[in-house]
Design brief:
single chain, hpI Integrase, Chain A, 2 domains, DNA polymerase, domain 1
Length: 294
């Protein structure tokens, strides 16, 4: 059944044009299930029953996997078997009537304006790495792009004269403006620093690592964690924290939700509405804490 799994991976990549992260996540879930099924039940993936899938989810539970992880695995299998049915290998999917109790969904972490200032002030611009790090952090907060979109940026996506970057990470490309400090940091990096960091002058990646090749997600994660530590910010910061903070800060300062949706690259406005709920909850908490009659 490896050929069928490989065909599904090709379908996700070429037909659905799913992001590399989505493809990687789906395929990891499906291959782990396939291995477990073969080793534990002696069954191929196309012969799996609803009971097999339920048993696998129980197996994940005994391993201490979170409700979110189990939900993601179930979604991966549901989409995979829908594809298998569409190809004619199966008449019906074995993933039916299986539900997972969802744990309480945590609201994303948001940095305050002061914490953002502290974080952005951390890179010391005395060497190429410092200038690059400053530019990356500023661009992340200025645009609210995803970390994958950040590291996928190429030189052709930058227009320093107009002060915008073109982001093609979602299915619909979008042009996002840079505030003056972010534009200055990016301009210095592009014009004075980047060329000296390249391993190959033909490299198109905007941001490169110390080896002169495209920055990785893991590389940027480590950089962000380092500056969180030096800034002494006592919050769990991830690359997505900057994206969430970007959206909330725009809304708090009067941006309309449609504009924020466009800047974030959300296809569904319900994804953006999460941030208005966060602001409403914050105001409710302040009210209950401060109003004398609350």
């Amino acid at each position: 059944m490896l050929d069928l799994i490989a065909a599904y991976e090709n379908y996700l990549t070429k037909v659905k044009q799913a992001s590399s992260n989505t493809v990687s996540s789906y395929m990891r879930d499906i291959r782990q299930f396939s291995d477990w099924l073969r080793n534990t039940e002696g069954v191929d993936v196309v012969d799996a029953s609803q009971r097999n899938i339920s048993d696998y989810l129980e197996h994940l539970d005994t391993e201490g996997r979170s409700a979110a992880t189990k939900s993601r695995n179930l979604a991966s299998l549901k989409n995979f078997y829908a594809y298998v049915v569409s190809t004619g290998f199966l008449e019906q999917t074995p993933v039916t009537s299986i539900k997972i109790e969802r744990g309480e969904k945590k609201m994303p972490q948001i940095l305050t304006g002061r914490e953002i200032e502290l974080l952005l002030a951390q890179p010391v611009c005395v060497d190429p790495k410092g200038f690059r790090d400053k530019a990356m952090l500023e661009v992340m907060y200025a645009t609210g792009i995803r970390v994958t979109e950040l590291i996928d940026l190429n030189m052709e996506d930058v227009n320093l004269e107009q002060g915008i970057i073109k982001c093609s990470g979602s299915r619909k490309s979008r042009a996002i403006p840079l505030y003056p400090a972010a534009l200055r940091a990016l301009t210095v990096y592009v014009r004075d620093v980047r060329a000296g960091m390249l391993a190959d002058p033909r490299e198109q990646a905007l941001f490169v690592n110390v080896n002169g090749v495209r920055m990785s997600r893991q590389g940027f994660w480590k950089i962000l964690k380092h500056y969180q530590d030096t800034a002494h910010i006592d919050k769990e910061i991830t690359p997505h924290t900057l994206r969430h903070s970007f959206a909330v800060h725009l809304l708090e300062n009067g941006a309309d939700i449609g504009s924020v949706q466009e800047l974030m690259g959300h296809s569904d406005i319900s994804s953006t509405q999460m941030y208005t709920h966060m602001i409403n909850q914050k105001l409710k908490n302040v009210y209950e804490k401060c109003h004398p009659k609350a």
